Amino acid sequence: MRAPRPKVAIAAAAVAALAVAGCAESDRGDSGSSSKDTLVFGVAGDPKVLDPSLASDGESLRIARQMFETLVKPEEGGTKVTPGLAESWTPDSTGTVWTFKLRSGVKFHDGTDFNAEAVCVNFNRWYNATGLMQSPDVTPYWQDVMGGFAKNEREDLGESLFRSCTAKDATTVDLAFSRVSSKVPAALMLPSFSIHSPKALQEFQASNIGGKADNIQYPPYAMQHPTGTGPYKFKSWDIANKTLTIERNEDYTGGPKAKIKTIIFKTISDENARKQALRSGDINGYDLVGPADVEPLKGEGFNVLTRPAFNILYLAINQKGNPKLADIRVRQAIAYALNRQALVDSKLPPGAKVALQFMPDTVDGWNPNVTQYNYDVNKAKALLAEAGASNLTLRFHYPTEVTRPYMPNPKDLFELLSADLQAVGIKVEAIPLKWTPDYLNATSTGTAHDLHILGWTGDYADGYNFIGTFFDRQKDEWGFNNPALFDLFKRADSTADLAARAELYKELNAEIMKFLPGVPISHSPPAIVFGKDVTGVKASPLTDERYSTAEFTS
To answer: Are the beta carbons of 44 and 288 closer than 8 angstroms?
Structure first.
């Protein structure tokens, strides 16, 4: 799970409607944290959209996970694929057609039936998308996973991995794919593949995306009427007061009903303000605990949960904007210049470690024998001199007004990395930009950025979800073209045998670290905290925490 995609704005009419929808909630006069029927959770930013098919930001997906369900889901607290709306799934002999046996008796929040036809309505909606629905800013995960559409309207889109959906009976559905892929069935755990009510999709014009590519206007469904099958359902979104409210689905059949009736997600962008709100009782929990706050909050009796480090922070090097960066010796010099261990020791939480490659060592395909770039100032200076780049000046972008699981304080991280670069003679032009949309626009498109820091939290436990997400094709973030590398990715993705695929991932990791399109910095175990009287939530390496199990102990 990366950052939200850039260039997405909310229609003014939708904002006004949402503010009205939330008025009753804002009249409460307090956070409601004293009520044992209501949990108030502090989040770092506002959600962007309530239709997870159109989302890639963490806050939108956090809320979607409470309201929607997918055919398969991660095990609680882990990454293993387990039953969701489907009880079982089996591939045919070719590995390209998967049969899913569905749960029976499931209802959407609007009272309509979940069945195989509903599954096909959803997959056909995504596959047959047209116009702005094909923008990478609108359907990011469909394009990352499936690649293209029934009729591609952009030249950079390839053949769709998804081919067809067939409802064999009410509880049996076949999903056909164009080839064997590492992404099936694991990627179907993503909230972006949540199953929506066909009735609500039609009634509230879910695919009627308006505006232009740089000013997307979402339809009513995406902003006011999300309708899934999950343990919570949407109640209101009060944009003015930065709160979004969901309430228990009393008709939920996927397990025990939610223990807490109402959850309010309250945006508090400042990390210290979230901490003080917890201590004062204004909220009952918050995410992205500052590394220095973990032990103090534990000492005060708060319920601090540390997630396994299933992420990567990296320094991206854009080879297109500055011709010097296309020289491997310059990229190597940058890698040798960085004292990554000092950064981990001083700025990241206990348990963080230096990254040797662009995926964590818990994922099959991690390679202990990749080229390593240990901190060496003299080697960095020598490589710069050899490349004729001793007077190099680089534009270094870093984000403001954001906290990410892999990046707790971007400015602090930038300052350490910048100081390391300057120590070997590289001049740094600091370019701080607001996280969304400015930073994401600048670093994902064009050639204005030489260096930037960004990262990724894994969506599922396959190496392709890390290294394939970054490097499987030509992308503006990195600004390079490496056909041999791209071909190796295609071979790995289409390899059905898990052991053989893992060996190809090892080969890919070795090639990536030789080519060095960027520098992997660290893997960090982010923490989430709840009040002293709140228990029941299990930390997830995928940030897939389930709030339906939360309860007050007193």
So the answer is: yes
